[in-house]
Give the backbone structure.
Amino acid sequence: MPQTRWRRSSRSQNGANCVEVSPGAIRDSKNPGPTLTADIPALIAAVKRFQP
């Protein structure tokens, strides 16, 4: 089984509040066990459209 390659957010600050992504999944770098499976391009588009 190939190992998943995770990429940390460029907005990460010294390891705090980090999000890591891989093809089709997202996880919290401080708690790397559970992952959220998602369509990453669709998720990014939705986040960019979000306006509080």
Observations:
- Helices lie at 40-49.
- The radius of gyration is 12 Å.
- Residues 5 and 22 are 6 Å apart (CA to CA).
